[in-house]
Every structure is written in structure tokens, then in C-alpha cells.
Amino acid sequence: MSRFLFVLAVAILALLVVLPVGTMAVRSLRVEYVQTKDGRRFVGRELDRTEKGIQFRDMGESTSRLIPLDRVAAEGREFSTRHYARLLAGGPQRAMLLATLALAGLATLLAFILGLPVGLLLAATDIPFRRFWESMLALPLVLPPVLLAIALYRDLLAIEPEFLRAVLVFGLSLFPLVALFTARAVRAGGSDALAAARLQTTPMQALLRVALGPALPGALSGALLVFCFVVADFAVPDFLGVTTAKNTIRVYANEVFTLWKNDGDGAAAAAAGMLPTLLAVAAFAVVLTVERHRETRRLGDDATSVEPIPLGRARWVGGGLIVLLLVAAVGWPAQRHLETAAGAHYGAPVFLGGAAVPANNVDASRSKPASLTDGLRRGLRHERVAENAWRSLWIAGGAALLAVLLSILLAEAGATWKRWDRVFVLLSFLPIAVPAMSLTVGAVECYGPARANAAWFPIPLLAARLLPFTTLAVRAARRRLAPAWIEAAVLAGLSPIRRLALVVFPLVAPGAALGFLLAFLFGLREVDALVFTQSGSETLPVQLYNMIHYGFDVQVAGLSFFWTLGVAVLLGIITSLGGRRFSLIP
């Protein structure tokens, strides 16, 4: 029966992760070609085959041509690197590669600069309300970054060049990753040294000479994960790019969207997605190497074993820094949403693809809101908003539940079949490295457009994206199980399934519950993975992203404020119920 659990875990993992990613990789190497009798060869995408001929678009051309059937010598598909050659050749393509690297690199640097001192303050000092601020740091992470971009759009117009606007948005929304990984590393590896340093050196020397050493590997892991998130993001560069007259923010994620959504070219879209995937995989490989050499200890337990370094009056300065960053990442955008909902920016032009159009160009937005209450009411009463919100909740909830169940199966299979455990971990974390839209392209190419249009399709797709978060929580809980309990269940004659149901699951249930809540929060922020699916495109974050492009500025502001407020309340409830056991980084 243990073999059955192993096969079941491998099968689900293959369906959710391996087959879509493998399909994406194979599809990126397939091209369609037409060879004419006069020796000419066209490589690209077949649009339509009629009695008159083949309507074919040669690779790199924007218009198609008709090749009469009596001139066709051969046609078909073949393996080729032509898609990659097109993406890497020429000035615009090289500029896109440099823009992707520059955006991800600078955003990672900013997140590192902001997150490292915050993590040190949380883990090693006596700043006031440490536990509260650590919980609140989760809020920028679980909100869609595009909400921050929408809120601060007009404030960011003064920043040149344009892509630095996206750098600021990503830095403010993702610096908590660096801070939380830093805090965990300090608590896991520096408690004894910190205890000695408190007695022998000044607080600043203790931080810089003692706490900084253990903190750097954790900060590096968090920064590299920031790189993975940024290099895969589409919504923020796209929104900030098309709302500028020059439209200069062009990265590989934009290319994936254009090739798939506008051109319908799955092979070229898959190739465009493979390049940021390789960049993210390289970063993620470093994360795994760093994490493998770090002692695995639980954050909640470590917090009680580290005596904080007393900063004196400077503790209020440290606390003020954290408050300032949270205000910039959450409070300031929320205030901007309220101003827009009240009509402060009503009628101001928004640049879409280089042409200025009125922000109130849609019927529902033509009249200026009479008050803030009127603007917020419009947001709540916008067409299908309740349906969009409900769809977001059940897709995120179903995906989180599926991810938790698979993580439990994989943890149990890895404990039984130890040679496969590292393979399971690598495959579970692969969806972090693969850009969300590229994973969707692979899933649609693998399972077909008909299934992609089904109402249930976003659930397994999103579950693959959430699998790394549930795997962290479940594996941390599974490691705390005493081997004697499992041995006692074996001696009692319990089958593997009964051991899983009666022994393992009840004991890992608290960790699995926290993993579910963590995955649920991250599922609510997802935009990129769902934008290509019919049901997923009806979720509230995707609808907000679409609405702002068509002038629903008042409604978007009202909905964005309520979305931020709702997620903040939900996060507060979760952290209150979880207490010290809850952490975004198990």
C-alpha cells in the first residue's frame, strides 16, 4: 500500500508540474515550416489551410502570406532553436533581455537594502512590538503588486527612466521576503553568539559583527526569491509600461503575453517563457544550496531562545523605520486609493500605448463621485464584483487545499522512499522558478484549450503555483514527528493509508492548516497564472487589472481599497489564531 501512495503522489505531481513544464520546454523547440517547390523555406506559424493554399506567417513577420497548394513541396513540424534565435538576435530582443535583467536585478538590490536591516531589527533587537510588525510584514507580500502600481501611478510619473518605477514597486512589495528570511536565519544560527555579544560589545557592534554573519545567507535566499518573483511578473511592467507615452518597460513576461494572447503562437510564447525560467532556476538553485547548509529550526521556537540586543532610545528609531516602510508599501497606496475613489484625480488623462485617453471614458465613470462614500459604493456595486470576489475565494481555497494534500502525500512518500525525497522537493519548488504565464501556456498546450476553458481548470493550475508554500509548512511539521510514533503504528499493524489518516495527518494538521492559510493568501494575489484562463480571468485581481486599462478609475480605487482592507483583516485573524506558530517562512 505504501507503493500506492508513492505512485499517487508522483502521478499528481506529474499532472500538476512535470507535464506542463515539460510540454512548455518541448513546445519551445518545435517550429512549423512550409517549403515551396522553388526551394524557399518559411518557418513560423500556420494560420489556416484552405483549398487555395496555406495562410502562413513567416517567423519574425507581422503579416501573413498565402502560399498556394500547388507551390508547396513539403510542410510539417520539426525541432529547431529558431524561436530562441529570434528572441536573442537583434537590437530590440537584446534590449528586452537587458531590461529583464536590469529590472529584476535592481528590484532585488532594493529589496535586499530594505529587508536586511528590517530582518536584523526584528530578530536581534528589542524594538517595540516585534511580533506585531513581523506579522504585518506579510501584508505587502500577499497583496497583488499591481495594486501598488495602480495606486502610485501618478506619484511615479516623475521617476526617470520609466522602468525604475517598476523597480520601486517591486522593492516595496517584496522586501518582506528578505526581512523574514533574514530574521529566520539570525534566530536559527546566531542565538549563542548574540548572547555573548550582548555582554561584551556595544549594540551596534553586536549587530554588525555578530548578527550580520548568520543573517547574510538568509538575506541572500530571500533576495534570490525576490529575483524569481520579479523576473516572472507581467502585470506590473505591463501596466506601468502601457501607461507611459514611451512604453519603454518591455520584458520577457510582456513578450509571453503578446505572443500567446495576441499572436496565438504557443511555441514562440513557450520559448519566451523559457528564458526567464532559466534565469529564475539559476537563482533558485543558489537558494536551495544555501538552505541545504542552514540548520532547520522553526521560527516560532527560535523566537523565545534569542534574547534581544537592547538598543536604548534607538529602539524607537528602528521601529520607526519599519513603520515607515509599511506605510510606503501599504498605507500610502491605500490613501491614494481613497483619494481616487473620492474623485481627486477624476478626468486626468491616462496614457495607453502612447495615446492619452480620458480616465473617465467609460459610461459608469463619466460622472464625478459626489463623495468618498459614493466612490466606494460604486466600487462595491460594480458589475459582477460579488461574483469576481467569490470566484477568487473558491479558486484560491480549492487550490490551497489541493496543494496541501499533495504536500502531505509527497512528504510521506519522501519519508518512505528517501532516495526520491530530494527529487520531490526540487519538483515541488519548480513552479516558483517558472513564470506563472509560462506555466499556464504549458498547461494549456498540454491539456488542450477545451479543458483550459473549464471552470475547474484554474484550481490545479494555481495549486502548482502554491505547492512550494504548502511544502515548506508541511515538511516543517513532518520533521517534528517523533520516529517512535510511526514505528508504533507499524508495530500495531496499521496500513500505510491508515497510518497516514490516523497518525501522520492529525499530528501534522496544525502545520498543514498554516500551510493552507499561507497558500490561500498567496492564491488571492495571483494575476499572471490566471489571466490566460477563462474562469481565472474572472477573479477579482485580474478584473481590477483589466478595469484600470479602460478607465474605471473610481471603481478600481474603491475595490482596491476594500481588497487591501479585507486581506489585512484576514491576515490579522490568521495571525491571532496562529499566534507564534504562524509565519510566512516556516
Largest sheet, strands/sense/barrel: 5 strands, antiparallel
Q: C-alpha Rg, in Å?
A: 25 Å
Unreliable residue runs: 295-304, 351-366
Let me know the average pLDDT. Answer: 79
Helix/strand class: alpha+beta
Number of strands: 7
Percent in helix:
55-70%
Shape: globular
Notable characteristics:
7% strand; globular; 586 residues; two-stranded antiparallel sheet; alpha+beta; 69% helix
Could you characterize what this model shows?
The protein is α+β, with helices and mostly antiparallel strands and 586 residues long. It has 25 helices and 7 strands. The chain has helices at 2-27, 82-88, 91-124, 130-136, 138-142, 145-151, 153-156, 163-189, 191-200, 203-232, 235-242, 252-262, 266-292, 299-305, 314-341, 372-380, 385-416, 418-433, 436-447, 449-452, 458-479, 483-491, 496-524, 540-548, 553-578; strands at 30-36, 41-49, 53-58, 65-68, 72-79, 349-352, 355-358. The longest helix has 34 residues, at 91-124. It is globular and about 85 Å long.
SSE blueprint:
Layout (H helix, E strand, L loop, with lengths): L1 H26 L2 E7 L4 E9 L3 E6 L6 E4 L3 E8 L2 H7 L2 H34 L5 H7 L1 H5 L2 H7 L1 H4 L6 H27 L1 H10 L2 H30 L2 H8 L9 H11 L3 H27 L6 H7 L8 H28 L7 E4 L2 E4 L13 H9 L4 H32 L1 H16 L2 H12 L1 H4 L5 H22 L3 H9 L4 H29 L15 H9 L4 H26 L8
Antiparallel strand pairs: 1-2, 1-5, 2-3, 3-4, 6-7
Helix pairs in contact: 1-17, 1-18, 1-19, 3-8, 3-10, 6-8, 6-11, 6-15, 8-10, 8-11, 9-10, 10-13, 12-13, 13-19, 15-16, 15-25, 16-25, 17-18, 17-21, 17-23, 18-21, 21-23, 22-23, 24-25
